Amino acid sequence: MLSDEALELLLKERGGAVIPIAGEDTSMAPHLAGGDLIAAGPLKHSPRVGDLLVFRQRDYLVVHRYLGTARTPDGTPCLRTRGDGRNELDPPVAPSAVRARVTAVRRAGSWRSLDGPVPEAYARLVAWHDHAWAIAGIVGRRIGAGTLVTTIDRVLLRVASMLLFSPFHRRIAPPAQARAETSV
To answer: For the whole prediction, is pTM greater than 0.85?
Structure first.
C-alpha cells in the first residue's frame, strides 16, 4: 500500500504519480475498474465539482468523485464524495484527507485526459447524476425499490460512459511519472 509520505514525495519530486486501481475494486465502475491506472497530481486549487479525488479513508487510499461541500452533523466542514459505481454517498471526507486530484486515466489500454473544459463538463454532469441518484437511492430503499433505483443508476452511467467518455476525453501520451507499486 502506498503511504501518504511516498505519495507526497512522488507528487513533490515528480509532479505526479501513476497508481493502479485494485483488481477487485468496482466502486468507480464504469469509469474505472480494477487494473485501470490513474495519473494523480497535486491539488493546486480547491476541488471542483466532478473532480476525481485521491483521499485517505481509514488505512487505504480511495479514488471517488467530488460532489461538493457539506457539513457533518456537528457542523464541521467536509467534502461530499461518491464512487460512481455505488448508489450511496461516502461518509463525510475531511478536507485534510485529500491527497491528490486525478488528471488522467488509462482505460482499455489508452490514456485519457480529465483536464480541459469538455472533460470537466462531463465530470460535472456525472457528479450531478451521482448526487441525484444517491438521493433517489435513499428514497428507493425507504419504499422498497432500492434495487430498482440502483439498477437504473448503473445502467444510465454505463450508457453515458460507453457513448460519451471517449469522445469527451482526448487521448494523451502515457504520463512520465514512474508507476507506484500500490493500488487504490
So the answer is: yes
